[in-house]
Design a protein that fits this description.
220 residues; globular; 12 strands; alpha+beta; five-stranded mixed β-sheet; three-stranded mixed β-sheet
Length: 220
C-alpha cells in the first residue's frame, strides 16, 4: 500500500489532494515520452469512487462553472471499483460524468483519462475517447436504440450515445508531433451508426476511420 497525491493544474491553479492507493511494479518502459527518471517503474491503482469525490472537491475549490468542461489527466494511474489492492476490480481507464441525469440540463460536466503506454490503450486514446463522448453525450443520457456486442460492450446492451465505446481498442492513424512522439487517438462511431439506416456522416461513413460498413444491429 502506498500513498498517492493528486496534483492537478487547472486554469493555472494547482490543487493538492491526498488519498490512499496501491502501486504495482512492472518491467516495461516509461510510455512514449522516454522519461529516464521513472524509477522504480510502477502503475498506480485508486478507487474510482474516491477519485470522483476528489474531482468534485477540486472543481468546487476552483469554482468551476457548468459552462466549462473540467478534464483531468492522470499518468499511468488506473481506477478500481473498490479497494485498489483488489486487481479483480480493475481497470477503469477514464470516464466522463455530470451533476444531473438530464440531457437538456446536465449541470457541471467533467471527465478524467489516463495517459499510458504500458497496460491497455496508448497515449491519448483514452483522452480522445472521453472528450468526444462528452461532446456527443455530456449528460450520459442521450438515448439511442439498444446496441451491443461491439467494442467494450462485449456483453449485454447499451442505450446511450457513447461514441467511443464501440471502438475501444481501435485507433486512428498515428500523428507525429514536433516533440517526436506519435500520438494515437481513438476511432469514434458517427451518429448514423447508432441510428441508421440512413447514413448522414461525412462521405456516407459510419465512423471516423471507416471501420464499420453497417449500422449497429438491434440488441435485445
Amino acid at each position: 500500500m502506498e500513498k498517492y497525491e493528486f496534483i492537478w493544474s487547472i486554469f493555472g491553479a494547482r490543487q493538492h489532494i491526498s488519498g490512499s492507493g496501491a502501486a504495482y511494479p512492472f518491467a516495461g518502459g516509461c510510455g512514449a515520452n522516454n522519461i529516464a527518471d521513472d524509477n522504480p517503474k510502477a502503475l498506480a491503482m485508486v478507487d474510482i469512487n474516491e477519485v470522483d469525490t476528489k474531482l468534485n472537491i477540486i472543481m468546487a475549490n476552483l469554482n468551476i462553472s457548468p459552462d466549462k468542461f473540467a478534464l483531468f489527466l492522470t499518468y499511468r494511474t488506473y481506477m478500481t471499483d473498490g479497494a485498489p489492492e483488489d486487481l479483480s476490480q480493475c481497470c477503469y481507464l477514464g470516464y466522463h460524468s455530470s451533476d444531473f441525469s438530464n440531457p437538456a440540463n446536465p449541470g457541471q460536466t467533467y471527465g478524467i483519462a489516463v495517459y499510458d503506454n504500458v497496460l491497455f490503450e496508448p497515449d491519448i486514446s483514452v483522452l480522445s475517447h472521453e472528450l468526444l463522448e462528452w461532446i456527443n453525450d455530456p449528460s450520459g443520457y442521450n438515448l439511442v436504440p439498444a446496441w451491443g456486442n461491439t467494442g467494450q460492450v462485449s456483453n449485454g446492451c447499451q442505450i446511450n450515445l457513447e461514441t467511443g465505446d464501440p471502438f475501444s481498442g481501435s485507433y486512428m492513424p498515428g500523428i507525429m508531433m514536433p516533440n517526436g512522439v506519435t500520438y494515437n487517438s481513438q476511432e469514434n462511431a458517427f451518429f448514423s451508426w447508432f441510428m441508421g439506416p440512413v447514413f448522414t456522416g461525412a462521405g456516407g461513413k459510419l465512423s471516423s476511420n471507416s471501420s464499420f460498413a453497417e449500422a449497429a444491429s438491434a440488441c435485445n
